[in-house]
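quick one before i forget lol
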Amino acid sequence: AVVSTLCVRARRKETELQRLSAIRGFFYFHQKMYNIMHDQKELVIDVTYQPNASYRPKTEEKTEDKEKEDNALADSPEAEDITALIQDGKDKDFQCTYADSNYIHFSTRDGSAKKNLDYEPVSGVLEFKEGETSKQIRIPILHHDVETRQEEFNVILENPSKETDLGDPSICTVTILDMSKRFIDHGTISVDSTRYHSDANPGEISIGIKRSGGSDGAVAISYKTIDATAIGGESQNDGSDYIKLEGTLWFRHGEISKTIDLVINPNAHDHSTLIVALQRPLLGAELGEECAMVITICKTEGCRESRDEALLAEIAGNYDDEDKPLKEAYLEQFTSALTMGGEVDEDGEEEEPSVGDLIMHFISLFWKVLFSLVPPRFFGSGYPAFLVSLFFIGLLTAIVEQIASLLGCVWGIKQAVSGITLVALGTSLPDTFASRSAAIHDDSADAAIGNVTGSNSVNVFLGLGLPWLLAVIWKWAEGGEEFRVGTFNLEFSVVLFVMVALFAILTLILRRVLVGGELGGNTVVKYVTGSICLMLWATYIVVASLKAYEIIKIGG
């Protein structure tokens, strides 16, 4: 039975090789999906002809009947259609013979988008001269005043010429995006989880890939497996631990999840690991922070127990650190602070440090070493690390405030002006970068805007209330002296701030109505909104400074 099965497999393989050797080349689309805006006039789709390196032409004598058949084909209407080079305006006079040409038929097919309403249907034949490997199909996109949504249609390749075949993809999906009332957000692609531990007899593993933050249009992401301690192979019988994967994952418009199926070989080594990495997002998608999954192959009970312990430790934030002595953990922190490394590329490999990395390392070296004094996160359930970090944040803020005040004194800037410029910039830039990160990676604008308003509430209520309370208690303890601090420019500054803040809120409301969201949008919308915010900030600084120097007389 085993011998018979092997013979069947060998015959199938031989038959497939014979079939491939008889194919001169393959036709396929350059991309499986395309996006186009509704107000754009034309879509260009690339078609590729890939010659087959293993092609072996048949050697047969041409009989009289065969010659008659070829002559009949050459005079047929189909051959006349082929001689006209469709979809190529530059070579309208080009002529070819039927027997020697490589050609492929193409046509459009309706989906939710309808011909003669959303697009102009096209069909025809693409001919490839000897040495040509790329042609283009041009499809006019029609604009109409009827309210539309995201719609799709297909372009297909069919009926290839003799001794050629269809490759993959031979069907292309086009998504027409209507974004007149909202901003485009193609989404961020990442893995569902950064770690996975298989069960006994894992077989096939499904790896979840998610698309968050938006699902407008079609997008794609490349993926590949990377060997760690597990070794990838081409089949289940070559002694490897798993079958290697490399390809492109396509998301249609509105799709937010996909899976990648990974085959683990029956004889895989226990507790071996591999990495599935996402890279090179296409068609406007962005790569998320969680762009790789570490897979551990567990086949024994002991491995599964260690898997559960590892998952619990990871949830607690103590993975791989809890068993380390405190001295060793501190040493690792200082070593990491003093070590200079480059960025990590898409394949997980560390690149050589650039000139920018060198400059930033030496600029921030003092602060890296200083903050290495923060206790390791696993020590004392993380509370010492939290308290010491809070202390360093307060210390750093106090240093920035003092330096800003000294600069204002040296440059002759009034304290009221240095407070709203140098001090404010020094203490608020960390909030700016935190809001930027939240705006890029979160599904909504809540975290980005909430971070700013939360920081302001801490500055106003805690930053003013706590020092005021301490000062009152101190004065009371000294003898009950009343604590009173006058103002010079505060009333005007607060009123001016409220006014520009109202303009900022109005901007957000207008974005909600006109664009569809508080953040994001196309390039023009983003730059206009950013310019408005910068203009409001500059207006506040300039007017408040002019009032502080009594150049303008407003109020008392």
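fyi The two ends are 103 Å apart (CA to CA).
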